Amino acid sequence: MAVIRLPDQGGLWVWSPVALTQDLRRAVDALGPVRHIIAPNSLHHTFLADWARCYPDAVVHAAPGLDEQIAGTSIHSTLGDLPDPAWAGTIDQVVVSGNRITTEVVFFHQPSATVLVTDLVQQIPRGWYRGWRAVVARLDLMTAPVPSVPRKFRMATKDKAASQDAVRRILEWPAESLVMAHGTPLRSGGKEALRHAFQWLMR
């Protein structure tokens, strides 16, 4: 999860929201009013309805492929390659299609030069999983020593050209930091990490 304060009193932009505990709600409310709630792919929607109920004035934006029945709440906007006017000029975005598992929208916060990626690139700390789950995570590259695209997403690529086109645009961003839903944020070297993670696709 990440929270961005939009300029010009645009409120808070909440990306891939996690469980809304009382402590988290207090922390978020202290930052300002929640105006936008983002479900960046069809897999990250578990807590979307809770946030929508808690912040009824917020606009819910979802990636292509996530419908209201699955999300359990109203979806006001389907994300595309063009940023919503509410955050245009502050946050850029690219829809990464061509994968059987999910379509993901990757974002770039321009003021901080930070890329936000949900499932397509992961680096879960070793030790997070135990037993057979740890073995599966290692084989899937979820716990690789560097940020990587899990093998399941590589194998699920159905339109390589479409995926390449999207990733090519992502790699054009002047990224410095990298925020992953499944991994420790990188404060520097974000562009190089993304280039390395997607080198299998861009060959």
Report on the architecture of this protein.
- With 203 residues, the protein is of the alpha/beta class.
- The protein has two domains: 1-79, Metallo-beta-lactamase, Chain A (4-Layer Sandwich); 81-203, Metallo-beta-lactamase, Chain A.
- The chain has helices at residues 22-31, 48-54, 68-71, 131-139, 151-155, 160-171, 190-197, 199-202, and strands spanning 2-5, 12-15, 34-39, 59-62, 77-78, 91-96, 104-109, 114-117, 177-180.
- The strands form two sheets. The protein has a five-stranded mixed sheet with strand order 1-2-3-4-5. Strands 6-7-8-9 form a four-stranded mixed sheet, covered by helices on one side.
- The chain starts with a strand and ends with a helix.
- 40% of the residues are buried.
- The model has no long low-confidence stretch (mean pLDDT 97).
What assembly state would you assign to the polypeptide chains in this entry? single chain
Low-confidence stretches: none
Based on DSSP secondary structure assignment, what is the total number of beta strands? 9
**Distance N to C terminus:** 31 Å
Strand order of the largest sheet: 1-2-3-4-5
In the CATH classification, which architecture of the largest domain applies? 4-Layer Sandwich
From N to C, what is the helix and strand string? EEHEHEHEEEEHHHEHH
**What is the 3D shape?**
globular
Structural class: alpha/beta
Radius of gyration: 17 Å
CATH class of the largest domain reads Alpha Beta
**The CATH fourth-level homologous superfamily of the largest domain:** Ribonuclease Z/Hydroxyacylglutathione hydrolase-like
CATH topology of the largest domain: Metallo-beta-lactamase, Chain A
What's the overall average pLDDT, rounded?
A: 97
Largest sheet: 5 strands, mixed
Question: How many structurally independent domains?
Answer: 2
Q: With helices defined by DSSP (H or I, 4 residues minimum), what is the helix count?
A: 8
Strand percentage = 15-25%
The share of residues in helices is 25-40%
